[in-house]
Design goal:
The two termini are 38 Å apart. The longest helix has 22 residues, at 4-25. 45% of the residues lie in helices and 12% in strands. 22% of the residues are buried. Strand 4 (127-130) and strand 5 form a beta hairpin. The chain is α+β, with helices and mostly antiparallel strands. It binds zinc ion (2 copies). One zinc ion is lined by residues 131-134, 161, 163-164, 166.
C-alpha cells in the first residue's frame, strides 16, 4: 500500500495543478477522489464523470518523482480538459493545451519498467487487436471468434473501443510469443513527423501565438494577430494559421 507521506505528496501535486487551472479558467475545481488500486501496464487513469484519478501504486513507488511530475499532472489535465471543454478526444488539442498550461510537454504514454506491476497474461491462444488510441488490445479465443464471425466480411471487427470509439481492428494472433514480444511488436501507429522549427523563425513565432490563443480567440482574430505581429499578408497569415492547426493537433 502507498504510505501516508507519499499519498500526501500526490494530493499536493494534484492541488497544485488544480490551482493553476483555477487561475487560468477563473473557476474552482473540486479535489478528485484518488485511488491506488490500478494495476498492470497503465500508470494512471482519470475518470471525469466520477471525478476520480486512479494511480498505479507499484509504479508510483518505483518511479516516484517521474510519476509525480508527469503521470499525476497528465491525469489531472484529463479532468480539467473534460470539465472545461466538455466531450473531447482524450489526448486531443484541448488536453494538450491544459498540459502546456501545467508546464508539461504533452506526451501520451509512460515509459516505466512495468515488470513488477504487470498483470500476468498467458498469451497462448490470445489475439491482438488495436484501435485509434491503443496499439494492443488482447482478446481471448471466444471473443475473437465472435468478433470474426459476425463481421467476417469487414476488415474491422464491429466492436468499438469504449474510449476512442474507433473500431477494433484485428492485428495478429499472439500464438506462442511472450507478452513483452507482443507489446514491443511492430504494431505501433505511425505518427506524422515535422521538422524541428528554427528558433525565432516565423513559423516558430506563429505557432507560439497560435498555441497561446487557440482556445481563446477566433480563427480570424488569430490570423489578424499574425498579420500585425509578424507582418504577414492576409493570405500568408491564413496559410500559417492552417499549418499551425496541423502542427498543434
Ligand atoms: Zn491520458
Ligand atoms: Zn481506443
Amino acid at each position: 500500500m502507498v504510505d501516508q507521506k507519499l499519498q500526501e505528496r500526490v494530493a499536493e501535486k494534484i492541488r497544485e495543478c488544480l490551482d493553476i487551472a483555477e487561475q487560468r479558467f477563473d473557476r474552482s475545481f473540486q479535489t478528485p477522489e484518488i485511488s491506488y488500486k490500478l494495476r498492470g501496464l497503465v500508470a494512471g487513469q482519470a475518470n471525469s464523470r466520477l471525478w476520480r484519478i486512479r494511480i498505479n501504486s507499484i509504479l508510483l513507488q518505483e518511479n516516484t518523482d517521474d510519476m509525480l511530475n508527469s503521470t499525476v499532472p497528465h491525469e489531472v489535465a484529463h479532468l480539467i480538459a473534460d470539465k472545461v471543454y466538455g466531450h473531447i478526444r482524450s489526448h486531443g488539442a484541448e488536453w494538450k493545451s491544459v498540459m502546456r498550461l501545467l508546464g508539461i510537454s504533452p506526451n501520451r504514454c509512460h515509459r516505466y519498467d512495468t515488470t513488477n506491476s504487470r498483470v500476468k497474461v498467458n498469451v497462448k491462444h490470445k489475439f491482438c487487436y488495436k484501435c485509434n488510441c491503443r496499439d494492443m488490445i488482447i482478446v481471448g479465443p471466444v471473443r475473437h471468434r465472435k468478433m470474426q464471425s459476425r463481421f467476417s466480411m469487414n476488415k474491422n471487427s464491429g466492436y468499438r473501443c469504449c474510449s476512442c470509439k474507433g473500431y477494433l481492428v484485428f492485428v495478429k494472433p499472439l500464438g506462442q510469443v511472450t507478452y513483452e514480444q507482443a507489446r514491443d511488436g511492430k504494431t505501433k501507429r505511425p505518427t506524422k513527423k515535422y521538422h524541428v522549427l528554427k528558433k525565432g523563425s516565423k513559423m516558430e513565432r506563429a505557432l507560439h501565438i497560435y498555441k497561446e490563443n487557440q482556445f481563446l480567440l477566433s480563427r480570424i482574430t488569430i490570423i489578424c494577430l499574425f498579420m500585425t505581429t509578424l507582418g504577414m499578408s492576409k493570405a500568408g497569415a491564413t496559410t500559417y494559421y492552417y499549418n499551425c492547426q496541423k502542427r498543434a493537433a
